[in-house]
Structure formats: structure tokens, C-alpha cells
Amino acid sequence: MRAAVHTAVNQPMRIEDLADPRPKAGEVVVDVRSCGACHTDLHVLKGELPFPVPAVLGHEVAGVISEVGPDVTGLAVGDRVVTSFIMPCGQCEQCVRGNEEICRKFFAYNRAKGRLYDDETRLFRPGGEPVWMYSMGGLAQRCATTATSVYRVPDGVELADVASLGCSTMTAYGALRHAADVHVGDTVAVVAAGGVGSALVQLAAVFGASMIIAVDIDDEKLAGARGLGATHVVNSSEVDAPEAIRDLTGGRGVDVAFEALGAVPTFEIARDSVVEGGQVVVVGIAPRGTTGEFDLATIARRKLQIKGSYGAKPRRDMPVLLDLVARGGLRPQDAISRRYPFAEVQDAYDALRRGETVGRAVVDID
Domain containing 137 — which CATH number? Predict the structure, then answer.
């Protein structure tokens, strides 16, 4: 099969021929139809998140199951599926407690070493050299992944529309539903209107937020956010964003502010934009060593809540999201602004690096 292989920091990915992956117990192989271009992949390409090379990135996958390993139930060859970037083992203490978004094996084996849970990769060059996997390694014609990360796409839903459910949408849902528990009538700010930010805006509308304020430095991204459900937009390069948010909310600030980029300036905007007792939810993945400041007295006196959110709970939440899509309550395709053929996969990440991507870009695997 062909795969886009990351070989060195800040070097273009190369399309190479790799051996077809084979599933082991509890795993399936998916013929990839499309894969979202996520900013977390870009962190790896830039060396901001340490990861072994050579590696295949890509973790927002939509495709068709082509092979099923032993001990897999409920899935079959030919099923149209979407994957979650979190691949819960279902057995560690966090999974047992219901916290599968912070599955210990996922972080120890996959995020740390690029392997699945037998401590081995499923990807190899023709000569046998191992190639590591970021999640399932979806920037390829085929990928192997745990069955716990694979979900049937309902009839009538186009595969080309739902790849982003696996990361950006699921990340946004986890932040809204589990970290913040947004209720009807709450006011929210979404700071950074990229892929995850766009999904936060869409889902905040689904959750019934009464005011959704999108903040960014790019007017095109703000226009896109308004089209996805933002009631107000603030360009933080032109005005003091926290002050503008307080003006829009009658001087009080928002109930919840989501930081969706992983950077100090966006964190500071979110921190300074919430009402007393409000929640600041950090969703964006920052480069290692990034630190944000806050005044301890202010946190105590204003009863602020600062939370982290890594994603949703795949086995509980992905079926909910897919049902929303099937019923027309959520349209992830509306956030897709660019589609790239596989031969131009590097172009997708170059555009992301330059900040040109509005919403989500998707790579179609031919």
C-alpha cells in the first residue's frame, strides 16, 4: 500500500510503499477513504510533540473495513466506519473507571512509542524496517486499529463527510459535554476558530448555548465560525478580546471559555473572559513546555475553574455524534473548506502551518 511517511522534523512527508498492515486479536484493518489534516499532526511534523520516526500520522479516518482480526465482534468486512483518535484499551484503570479518553495504554504505547497494545507496530517498509503509528496511521491506503476505536457510519451518511468526527468533533464534544457540561442558555466563548474551534462552535449551538462568541485573528475564519453558528465574532488582533467579550455580555463575561489552539495568548484571552464562577477549558494541544500564568488569589476570589479536556469518551460518545449526523442535527461537512488528493498530502499540512485552513481540511485517499 501507499502511505505518507514522516521521516524527519520539518521535512516533507514522502509517499512510500509499505507492507499491508495485518490485524491481530481485537483489531481491524480499514481501507481509508479520507483522513482529516489535524493540527496535532502538525505539532509532530514540527517537532513540538516528540514522536519516533519514520512514522505515519493521521488519526481522523473514514473508510471501509477490509479485514477483521480474531476476537472482534459487532464489526464485519464491508462495514463503512469512522475511527476515533483515542483507541481505548478497555482494560486499564482509567478505562474501567469510564475515563477512556485518558486510557493509560493509549498514552504509554501509542502516543509514547507509536505502537499498538502488544508493544508492536503494524506498519513496515518492504525490507522489514518498522514504521511507527500516530494513532492508527490514517494517512495511508490502509490502517490497522483496535476495534474499540471503530464505529459504523449510519446509512445515508457520506463517508467523505465524517472523517473529522474522529478527532476535532469528538474533542469538542468532550470539552462541551464532560469538561464544561454546557447547558441550554449558557454563554460561551471559543478562542481560536480552527478545526477544533469550528467544531466547538457547531456543537455549542447544538447544546443550546444562548451566546457563542468566536475569537480569532483571521476575519475569514471568523466568517466561517459565524456560518457554523457563532452569534458574535471578535478579532483579537484589532480589539482587546476579553473587554469586547464583557461588552457583549453586559459586563459579566461568559459562563465558559474554550481555548482551542494551545498557545499562551489564546489561553490568556480565555482566562480573562469568564464570569465569576466561570470555567476556562483548555482544549488545544500546546507544544511541550508551554506555560500559562494565572493569579492564585484571583482564582480563589472569583471561584474560577480551570480545566483540561483531551477528548470525548469514544465508546459512549461516538455513537451519539453519529446519530446527530444521521438526523441532521450536526453537519461536520459544513466545516470542511479544503479537500486534497493523496498526492498533495503535504500541501494540506503546509497550508495548515501557514494558518490558511478555515475549519477542516481533508485528504482523500485514492
Answer: 3.90.180.10
